[in-house]
Every structure is written in C-alpha cells, then in structure tokens.
Specification:
7 helices, Immunoglobulin-like, 5-stranded mixed sheet, 31% helix, 303 residues, 60s Ribosomal Protein L30, Chain: A, 2 domains, alpha+beta, elongated
Length: 303
Amino acid sequence: MSGRAVNTVSLYFITTLLLLFAKQSIAINYSPKISINTHWSLESSVFECKLTQDVPYYGKAVFYHRSGDPVIFYLEPKREVMKEGKASLVIDAPVWKPSVRAVDLGLVDVRNTQHSIKLNEKLAFRMLIGLKDGMRPRFARQPWYEDNQEKVEVSLSSINFQSIYREYNDCVAKLLPVNFDQIARSVILFRSGKYELSAKHRKQLNDIITYVKADKTVKQFFVDGHTDNVGTRDDNIELSQMRAEHVSQYLVDNDVSTDNITMRYHGERYPIATNKAAKGRARNRRVTLRLERDDGVEYESYE
C-alpha cells in the first residue's frame, strides 16, 4: 500500500473518530450568561429564606430554607427537559482556577414534577459552599425524548454570589425556631400525677409563642387536658383540668389573649394508646395544643 493510501486511510479513520466523539458529546446547555449582570435574588423573612437564580430558557434554581427545617435545593423547569431517572451532579472548577479539581457529588433523582430535581440539606449545603468558592454546579441527564447521543446540562453561575450569600446567611440567622406545620398540633407530655410545667415544657411553649407573635394569622388556641386511667375518674378530671390550666396560664403570661384560648379537660376519656402498658399510659398523660388560623378548619378532635 502506498504512503498516500496509508495517509488517506489514517485521515479517514481519525476523521471518523472525531465525528463519532463529537456526536456523542452533544450537550444542550442551560446556564446563566457569564456576565457582571448575572443575578441572584433573595426573598427573606422570619418564616423563610429563598435564594433564586433564573436559568434562561430553562426555569429556576432555588435554595429554600424554611424556619424549623433544613435548607433544600430544587430545580423548577418551565417544562419537561430531562428524562426521569438519575442525573449526575458535578461542581466544576472555574476556568481561572485550573489547579482546582471538579467535585463529583454522584447521581440525583430526576422526576417529572414541578421540582424536577430536589436535593437534601447535605447536597444543598455542598452546592452553596461550592458557589461561595467560585465553583459551578452542573446537572447532566439525557433529554426527555431519550436520544442517547445527547445530554441536557443545567448549570448555575457563581458570579455575584458571595454578596448575596452573606445576606442569605443573615436571613437564616433570623429564622424562627419552628414553622406552623410543626406547631399546629403540639403534644405536651406529663409525668404520672403531675401538672407543673418543666423546663422542657416551657421551651416547647416558648417556641410556639415566638412563632405566633410573628404570624398574625394565628387566632385561636385550643388547649385540651388528658390523663391515663390511673386513679379515679373524678381525680383524673381534676388532674387534666390542672394540666390544661397551667398550659393556658403560661400562654396568657406571655401575651396570648384569654379571648383566643379555648380550654377543655377530659380526664381519661380519650386515650390515644393502650392504658395496659407503661408506654401507652405515658402517651395518654398529655395536653394537646391546637392552633387555628383565620382560614383554618373547625376543631373537632379531642386528641
């Protein structure tokens, strides 16, 4: 075979490999433009901190921290883009830091829901730290139409992130200790025969009081006292009354209006567990505190 023929074959082979590689490396990339105008926005209150970046033609990337809960991250696409399954999550180093290695955070779930990717506190925090350090989180997954030769990539930009991250941390520091879902129905447990509030009880009630002072939509407090079946029925009615009164009085002493408190006491009539076992009796010795907002449902349960 002549040298020209060999060169022709080699050129054909190399060209074929390059075309094949290029075909396999096609990626549809959604990311903010690298610009000084790249924007992060922060919605802040004592109830939540929401840090958002718009991803052009894709949707939103959001770090969400609700009071009483850990931070989470989610992608909110305008339409289905990625195929359901597993996407890779890599935190890429910026081009101006060639000595820094990318961090592979593994695979994450992709679902065809409003939040196509939703990450827990650990991964969300790793992404936040990466962005603070100038890194670029990137998700990659096949597109929804299942073309194996393409990938969809969604990237975030760290440009202008550090200043907004300081504001975000200030917001997190001011969050309330609990959210409404955590206190809408609270259970305060008592030792056998006791009705006095312990330090643990006061801490639990203080968190509730702190929240309702900030949330003016909470209007009603329903306080119900209960006992186990140890002792006589009359004694248990009196004990459940004393438990309910102590909780109610603590609320009043901390600026909750008596007009907003409905107090009841039931003795042993409404157990939520068997009184035949010590663990069951411990669950029955309780006061339940139910909060109701303006748009709340009627209070019906005696638990």
